Amino acid sequence: MTAKYYVTLTDYGATRVAQAHDSTSILLSQLVIGDANNIPYDPIDKKSQTALVNQRATVPVQSVQINGAVTTVTATIAANLGGFNIHEIGLKDDTGKLVYIGNYHGGYKPIIAEGAGGELTIVIDITAESGKDALIEIDPNVVTANKKWVIDNFVRISTFEEALNNEKDARIYSDNLLNEKIDQANLARLNGDKDLSDRIYLLENAPISPSLGVNQNWQDVTHLRALDTNYFNNSGGPRAISVVTQGRDAEVNITVNGLQVWNSQNTYDNWDIIMGGMTIIPNGQSYKVEANRTRGGTLIKWMEMGI
Q: What are the residue boundaries of the Phage tail fibre protein N-terminal domain, all occurrences included (predicted)?
């Protein structure tokens, strides 16, 4: 099935790819986002563009991952950027020129002032065309960390260090107390020191990993999601999703990395009913929800936790 939303090389990008080889990389620097003046278009008709039709924001590329013939590019739109429907996207190289141009499903990107602002991570899969393979890399001068990465990796470390300091203070106090009673509790002190040292060792070597549901809430992302569209969990931890669809012969089919993990179907022909599905997406994996839209299945609600 031909993809409805995709990116394609601009004329400039095609020239860059034709000139690139294993020792000459294309450095992707920026993701540009626009509303196309709210008139969606097919990217193949805009290959001659040197800029988006109506660019609204620019953000740095955060990661480029290559898996065989597929290059996955990730960028995050900050919470303070938005107030428009995203109909077009593009990728620029380190010279600031447009290499790829693509369309988007028109989801609305709110801002904090509207009461529903939040970061939006866009993941783009680029498949190398025959005869057009090129080495695509991230521009090392523009690597950034999003808010969630900072919270996961620095706030948690701060909590860990506080717990470790408290444990060490407890050991010092315990040692002083036992020293005062060394004649009566020499053996207890030795055993206590060993047990306390073991606990400190476990704390110092404990892995730091996010836990699903801890200090997290369900979020309504219906306006940011679309059926039959691949999304990517790069949050650093597991992500739970819950989806509800409605329609005649409605269906909820959830796939993770191409593997079906949930399927519920309406077995009552011609009945308009509501169907639901729920699963957990491991970090670093893609996911997609389908709902038999050819028979009228529509998205009613899409909730996520751990995003």
A: 1-147
Q: Is 188 helix (H, G, I), strand (E, B) or coil?
A: helix
pLDDT digits (tens, 9 = 90+) for 261-279: 988 876 666 667 788 889 9
For residue 272, what are the β-bridge partners? 248
3-class DSSP state of 305: strand
Within a domain: 293: yes
- For the cut 60, the answer to whether the pLDDT of residue 130 exceeds it is no
Q: Are residues 86 and 162 in the same domain?
A: no
| Assigned token pair, 228 | 């039959």
Is residue 13 located within the same domain as residue 95? Answer: yes
What is the predicted pLDDT for the residue at 198? 76
Instruction: List C-alpha distances in Å: 245 to 166, 192, 268, 295, 306.
Output: 50, 59, 15, 12, 22
DSSP string, 135-183: -EEE-GGG----HHHHIIIIIHHHHHHHHHHHHHHHHHHHHHHHHHTHH
Residues 6+ apart with CB under 8 A from 20: 26, 134, 135
In a domain, residue 174? The reply is yes
The CA distances from residue 254 to 4, 136, 235, 307, in Å, are 19, 30, 19, 17
Residue where a domain stops, chosen among 142, 164, 193 = 142
Domain count, the chain: 3
The verdict on residue 212 lying in a domain is no
Q: How far apart are CA 283 and CA 269, in angstroms?
A: 37
Strand 120-127, strand 55-67: pairing: unpaired
Q: Domain range for residue 71?
A: 7-142
The answer to whether the pTM exceeds 0.90 is no
Same domain, 19 and 132: yes
301 near 216, Cβ under 8 Å?
no
Which tokens sit at 198? 């073991």
